Amino acid sequence: MISDSSEPTLIGKQIVLGVTGSIAAYKAVALLRTLLREGAVVHVVMTQSATKFVTPLTFEVLSGHPVSTDVFESHQEMKHLSLPAQADAIVIAPATANCLAKAALGLGDDLLSTMLLTAQCPLIMVPAMDGGMWIHPSVREHVGTLRARGTIVVDPEIGPLASGQIGQGRLAEERKILESVLAALAPQRDWQGQRVLISAGPTQEPIDPVRFISNRSSGKMGYAIAEAAQARGAQVVLVTGPTTLPTPRGVEVVSVVTAEEMLKALTARLAWSTTVIMTAAVADFRPAHPASQKIKKQGRITQTLDLEQTTDILASLSAQRTTQLMVGFAAETNDLIAHAKDKLKAKGLDLIVANDVTIEGAGFGRDQNVAVLIDRQGGMTELPLMPKRALADAILNRAHALLHTRQTTQAPKPVAGGR
Ligand code: CTP
What are the backbone dihedrals phi and psi of residue 200, each rounded to the nearest 5 degrees, phi first? Predict the structure, then answer.
């Protein structure tokens, strides 16, 4: 419920307000003012037909941001990707029957509908149409599809319609729309009762007391998942290689340095966990005979390092698991999907997060990442470039859905000979 106090309820929230071509488009102006009054930052996206009812200038002046109508309007910025990536919620009010149909079918023939294909945040659709349209079987079907997918559809109200008839088709009251937005933004606690074991960061494999072999991992992805899982109600243990990141609130952190230490720390906690998410960039090789004294450079110019392979921690955990859901990462520079699928199978995983570490602005050390989620049933979701925290939530959404389907299926084991 919305409180009657004057405390704004949407401070710091970014909302995309989609307006489509219905006579109720004028009511979106009042809705925009309410969202702004509640403290939200609002970007308005209009369809071409919406601009026949209200001018973009009205929304532009009130929102303080340019109104987007066209997917091709800017060469600099891909609005269908950037707007939903930053949004905490998308509200489409009014949503026409056409808009509902396009969203349900996954059609993307304008900026608003294309945006919905990339959005990961909650979507609230507030239909407005003639009563006869609202009860048409195809509209009923599309609303059913959208609701099954998690879209919040706020039922229209009964009353006099633009046609002069009385029916169910009037845009829902503003108070109801606002309540739906607040409910969608309330912190999810869907991981409550789950115990999540996460690995993060690089490992360091000593050559001698002052030198080591390591990699470019910053640990940001694993820390973001730990933070998100904790916020969603899970108990979280984060086993981390050396990083400079602050400890996420409410998360138990176990610091390790080498692959061997990480293996031990994770193995010891496997039985406790219900889900394992392995984001760590574990060194695949370590010096076979680390020197106990600093190796002096004099006379050593031709010395070669003897390396031995480390244990594949994920495959090892997977082989020992009982009911845990196993999630791995695949950091690739080429043949992303094929390599990720091979790792999914070889390591006996339920889900793999494939990321191409060569993509500009994504991957090691960055705050953003781009990934493809592949599950063992072959389900594949391509996600756009997004902040690591948003990707963390997308991974947890997928893993959460798998946890539920797992209850009825058998956990896989790594294939023999898999790494
Ligand atoms: N992993 C692991 N132990 C290792 C190496 C990797 O647990 N010794 C885990 C990683 O944390 C990741 C997954 O396995 O979740 C895949 O890691 P990646 O580095 O992409 O692949 P590798 O298995 O090391 O194979 P390659 O280096 O040949 O790509």
Answer: -150, 165
**Fold agreement between 14-185 and 195-292+300-404:** yes
Strand order in the sheet with 152-153: 41-46, 14-19, 89-95, 123-127, 152-153
6 token code pair: 């004057």
**Is the beta carbon of 71 within 6 A of some atom in ligand 1?**
no
Q: What pTM, to 2 d.p., does this model score?
A: 0.70
Q: Known catalytic residue: 397?
A: no
**CATH superfamily ID and name for 14-185:** Flavin prenyltransferase-like (3.40.50.1950)
Tokens of 196: 């999540």
Per domain, the residue ranges of the chain are: 14-185, 195-292+300-404
Overall fold of domain 195-292+300-404: Rossmann fold (3.40.50)
Catalytic site residue from 98, 215, 334, 397? 215
- The tens digit of pLDDT for each residue in 235-267 reads 999 999 999 999 999 999 999 999 999 999 999
**396 in ligand 1 pocket by Cβ < 6 Å?**
no
pLDDT, tens digit, for every residue of 134-150? 999 999 999 999 998 88
